[in-house]
Amino acid sequence: MAKRASIRDIAEAMQVSISTISAVLNGKAAERRISDPLRDKILKYAKQINYQPNMLARGLRTGKSNIVCMLVEDISDPFFAAIAREMEKQMASIGYKIFYSSTENDLDIAQSLIQTYRDRQVDAYIIAPTPGLEKTIESLEAEQLPVVIFDRNLPKIETHNVLIDNLTGTLNATRQLVESGRKNIALVTLDSKQTQMMDRLKGYQDAIKNEKQKPIVLKLNYNRGVDDITPQLKDFFIKNASIDAILFTTNYLTASGLKALKNIGKSIPNDVAVIGYDDNTNFSLYTPTITAVSQPTKEIVVAIKNILQKLLTGKIKGKKETVLLPTTLIQRESS
């Protein structure tokens, strides 16, 4: 493999100092009073040999990598994938690149990834935290590294947060099912103590209590594929044959639930009304189309970028900032 060209190689070939080459390549030729002909000659030669800057070395010199890392549960999930796509655009607008990784909601994986990014001196962290990540985040903040938490928070520590009003999201979705005449409304959710899932459960419970209906709840373990949970869902729906509406608290639970309902011959919305969570393009392609609670992905990303930009430029000091954004219920044929 050919040796990677360095600033030293260019300096030797052009017979000028390394500092002159560095100034030109970093756009500081005018500041250093380097002549235009010499600047152009250096840039032409650098392009000719396909010079690529060593970003790690530049980061060591400047103390900045212009890289922000983002950790999410699963980058293939439609919600997190949409966040990642928009985040790339928003961070590029302020001169940063995004590196992202999946934690699989596993503490050990999350801690290992954060250490890897620390070793590479990334400038900031955007994290959808796993349970138990408090000490790691506190250590980042102790080093005065910018951190923004999103999707769910860690109540035991004070952080900058961008969150969704999940409680109102499921409250309104359940009310919509009640208003359409449904009497036996079930919730299919995850067996999770994370704040976003607890809020979605509470919103449903509050609406059901207000309407004096009986709660019907199925909690499933995280990290199960569609095929793994479909039998459990079928069994739950068969044992609770009076169910006439179902609210699912994630998009992948919705997909599994639709498969299970089809397998037992239930018609949507005639037999059972359905509302999903985390709207995505697939929901509008089903027959019938699926009503969903939509999270505002662009607004989430813009809020994260705005906080990070203030942190990176030293414009936030003292009290932590929390942004709470509303959901939208997108009405379609399934309810």
CATH architecture of the largest domain: 3-Layer(aba) Sandwich
Shape: elongated
Q: Helical stretch count? A: 12
CATH class of the largest domain: Alpha Beta
The portion of residues forming beta strands comes to 15-25%
Stretches where pLDDT falls below 50 for ≥5 residues?
Answer: none
CATH superfamily of the largest domain: Response regulator
Tally of extended strands? 12
Organism: Pseudopedobacter saltans
Pfam families: LacI, Peripla_BP_3
InterPro entries: HTH_LacI (IPR000843), LacI/GalR-like_sensor (IPR046335), Lambda_DNA-bd_dom_sf (IPR010982), Peripla_BP_I (IPR028082)
Protein name: LacI family transcriptional regulator
In short:
By secondary structure, the protein is α/β, with parallel strands linked by helices.
Structure commentary:
It is a single chain. This protein is of the alpha/beta class and 335 residues long. The chain has three domains: 7-53, 434 Repressor (Amino-terminal Domain) (Orthogonal Bundle), CATH 1.10.260; 62-164 and 298-326, Response regulator (Rossmann fold, 3-Layer(aba) Sandwich); 166-294, Response regulator (Rossmann fold, 3-Layer(aba) Sandwich). It is built from twelve helices and twelve strands. The chain has helices spanning 7-14, 18-25, 36-48, 55-62, 78-92, 107-119, 134-142, 166-179, 195-210, 226-239, 251-263, 297-312; strands at 67-72, 97-102, 124-127, 147-150, 160-164, 185-190, 216-220, 245-248, 273-277, 291-294, 322-325, 328-330. A six-stranded parallel β-sheet has the order 2-1-3-4-5-11, sandwiched between helices. It has a six-stranded mixed β-sheet with strand order 7-6-8-9-10-12, with helices on both faces. Helix 11 links the parallel strand 8 (245-248) and strand 9. Helix 1 (7-14) crosses helix 2 (18-25) and helix 10 packs across helix 11 (251-263). The longest helix is centred in the middle third of the chain and has 16 residues, at 195-210. It starts with 6 loop residues before the first helix and ends in a 5-residue tail after the last strand. InterPro entries: HTH_LacI (IPR000843), LacI/GalR-like_sensor (IPR046335), Lambda_DNA-bd_dom_sf (IPR010982), Peripla_BP_I (IPR028082).
